[in-house]
Amino acid sequence: MSIHHSLDSIRRSLSDICSPPPDHRPFDTPRRFAAFAHRLSNLLLLLLPPPPPSPPLQTSLKGLAAEFSKAAETASVYNTGSKILVLVNCKNLSSALQQCAVAVASWLALLASALPDHHDLRHKASDLSRDMKLAQFRVTENEERVWCTLEKEGEGRESSKAVQSGIVMDLARALGFDPGDRAEFCNQVKLYKNDPFRSHSVRERRVLVSLERILSNWSVEPVTVTPNWDFEIVEDAAAPIFPFKSFLCPLTKEVMRDPVVVLESSQAYERTAIEYWFERCIQDGRDPTCPVTGTVLKSLELKANIGLAGAIEEWVGRVVEFQIKSAVQYLSEEPLSVDNVERALDHVYKVSEEHPSRRYIIRNAGVVPLIVTVLSDNSKTIGSHLRSKALMTLLSMANDEESRKIMLERGTTRLAVHSLIGSSEKEREYALKLLLEFCNDEDSCVRIASEKGALVLLSSIAGNMEYPSLSNLAEEVLRQIERAEDNVQCLAAAGRFGPLISRLQDGSVGVKIEMATLVGRMTLTNSCKEQIARQGVKVFVELLCNQEGRGPSLQALHNLSGLDGNATILIESSVLPPLIDVLFDEQDPSCEVKSLAASIIANIVSKPGHWELASADKKGNTMQSEIIVFRLLGLLNCLPSECQVTVLRILCGIISSPQASELVASHITSEGGFRTVLPFLEHPEVEHRVFAFKLTRLLSEWFSQNIANELRLSNKLTLLKEKLLNNQSTSDERSDAAQILANLSLSEGEVQTFLGGDFVEWTAVTLKSQRRAPNARFSHTASGMQEGLVGLLLHFTRNLDQPTLNMVRENRLMAVFCEQLDYTSKPKVKQLAAIGLKNLSEFGMSVTGRDSKPPSSSGFCSPLMLVCGKAASQPSACPIHNGTCDEDSQFCLLRSNCIKPLVDILNDSDTDVQLAAVDALSTLVSDYTSRSFKRVVDELEHLGAVDSLITLFTEVRTEELREKTIGMIEKILRVENMSNRHALNHSLVRGLVEAFKHGNSNSRKHAQDALTHLKQLSGVSGKTSSQTRARR
């Protein structure tokens, strides 16, 4: 760079530095640096014309050009950047100018040494170099304080209103404007926000956010209006004047309550506000100042301004009286004005909160009853928002003892409870807080609990986690209510059993009996029954040994035993021995007590709860033991009628248990025990008959011959038939009667004479009508009836003589059985139907097997003409019977379309159903030597029976089912095309190998033959299939 270019650059930079800013700038540092720049400008005039160039001269001028270019940029920030930006970066800017001054001093010294012939110029350059080297560019104390404050604001701290006001005052002094000039402050913040020099660092962004927050919180006219009071009736001569400026704290902009004076500055502040300001200054690491004057304080001593406090107190008293008078006027208007009501509530709330010592004025003015009246009489008119404010105001006034009494007398608890269903969260919140405030004494707790729906609403809110704050408040209210002894019952009714259980466990015997009485007469949900049983059943068991507590304890246990899940809890609490003692106690003739004990036992044994393993008496006998069963049977002869039915329930319960049923049935049927039950089959009371029939049905499932004999001896067989045919009998009785008749071992003569053809027709028709009945498949009684009716028809399939054959054909029993196979709700029905199809199919196959002649063209084999009826006009060959069967033949599974339904139930989840289906299908392949056997297998293959049987075999669950399935598969594999097709079925081969190794003797024999048909025997026996064939 040439000397001329360097000089031009220096002159431009000096011109920028010396140019005055567009507005007044309160910063001294750039002005001082500009003074040095002005001296340098005069010195450069002496270099005209420029001396001959030399390396020292060129280097010095080049260095000066670079440094003044930097200084010009810094000066530009001072002169054109926002003032707040300068304050935020004042230390960095001053440091930059300081570095430039030191560097310029060094270049000026080099310039002076490069001008040996210009003595005056060299002397002036040396003086300027010395002065700039000694110059100190530092920020002022006020700038230092503001910088420190903004630096702390850049850390993102929260500031109180007092601190924010102090920051505004310091900032105003540093920027040179009046602290009350909000417009200028707003303008400075806006300039800072849009300043192109701003670095957008996190720290500067936080400073901007803090200043914008301070600006939004700053009152528009903080010196003339206080936000504490709202005067609407300015024309009223009684209205107090607005507060004097001296009443307002400069920091909070509110009327002072505890005015103090800073001794050093004589400036008055609110005590808490100025103390917080001092604390903040010390935290920021700077000397505390007086916010208004900016004076650095050496002492932080404050003195109470008693005179000012008295004047403020007098003014506040006048304001309070006026506000309360206005509130009474607004709340007494007819009709009410919503705006005036809200204004009145705001006035009363502010007085109560900000001047609690003046609450008596509100009370004496009758404001509390007026607010309660507004809530009760105008609840819908004022809306949820004003209801919230009214409750909030009452909550504040509830801190006054006399006002709280007024609220309680006026029914405020009822209004608060009603607000618990309010539409707004705020309304519910203040209602809960008000109720919590009322819970300070026990009488109020009782009053709240007695309010209609209070406990239910509180429990609902407490359990709703969508609003956690409301939930916590409601829970606290409930805890307070629980302290009152009189609330135990209503709390329990609302599902709060804590107090009840606590008293039940820890109270005296009298209290325990009282709690047991309460539990006994309550209507409980299932969850409540479980909760009480888990925590209190042991106490009830203990009370059974107490003469006074026995009755209440039995009532409680009876209530709890109604839940299925409680059976286990009761058994684990050893409840059976004391109950058995009560039931068999001959010294206590009380029927009510015995009936309760029996009902509890019946409830327990009718539900799963491992009672079969528990001791029923002190000697260790179980409920299914012979002695207990006989004693129960004995009670049937000596107890009143209302107790007898409960004993029958117990017997039905213990015989229904899979673990105890056979043993109990044997006890009852032995030594004439069943004769004790027989009279109840004709008892005048329905409930007695229902349980008697149920017990007889359960017994007949185990000892059908014994029960049949007893019924014959007592002439009760006809009773069963009459009960079944009587539409006036209950559905339970008819269902059980049908199942009993189905279970009984009836002779061939009894089947024909006792039941007869008309009965078969009635049974078949009833089965069809039941299937068409709505919801029949989902009714336990209907499914039981279905089971009984199908079982009854089985009697006619066991011994098929000519009259019976006619009944089978006329009533199309095979079709009836087939229809039951899709009865999905009762596996037993499908099992019985499959057995019926098996019996009919077996008969059909046996008749065919007796005929050795070729099939006649006139129809089904001649011996079967009486079975299948008259031949069809166009007979077709039946592959099953190797002859001609009618399309509606009742002895041919194929013609009756029964094979596919039987195949479908091979996939049933019940093993007994699968066994019955396999047995029925096995009748089709019983004669594998028949000439038509291949046609039979082809037909089974076509209907999917072969694949289903193989699938069932590979997934088999029991040895019996495997044995029957593998036997049928072995016969099917005798057909060559079947063995060829399944020779590579690895699942089948694997299953056959497994049966050959681990099955019973029959299964092994069938598996060996089946593997031989598949030419897979070598894989099992170790011999090749060719060797096997050669041996044959």
From TrEMBL:
- What reaction does this catalyse? S-ubiquitinyl-[E2 ubiquitin-conjugating enzyme]-L-cysteine + [acceptor protein]-L-lysine = [E2 ubiquitin-conjugating enzyme]-L-cysteine + N(6)-ubiquitinyl-[acceptor protein]-L-lysine
Ranges for the U-box domain? 242-322
SMART domains, alphabetically? ARM, Ubox
Record's keyword terms, sorted: Coiled coil, Repeat, Transferase
Does the keyword field hold Coiled coil? yes
* GO MF term set: ubiquitin protein ligase activity
Q: What class of enzyme is it?
A: transferase
EC number(s) stated in the UniProt entry for this protein: 2.3.2.27
Q: Identify the metabolic or biological route this protein is part of.
A: Protein modification; protein ubiquitination
Which InterPro entries does the UniProt entry name for this protein? ARM-like, ARM-type_fold, Armadillo, RING-Ubox_PUB, U-box_domain_protein, Ubox_domain, Znf_RING/FYVE/PHD
Q: Which domain of life is it from?
A: Eukaryota
List where this protein forms a coiled coil. 467-494
User: Which PANTHER family does this chain map to?
Assistant: RING-TYPE E3 UBIQUITIN TRANSFERASE (PTHR45958)
Protein name in the entry: RING-type E3 ubiquitin transferase
Q: Which organism is it from?
A: Flemingia macrophylla
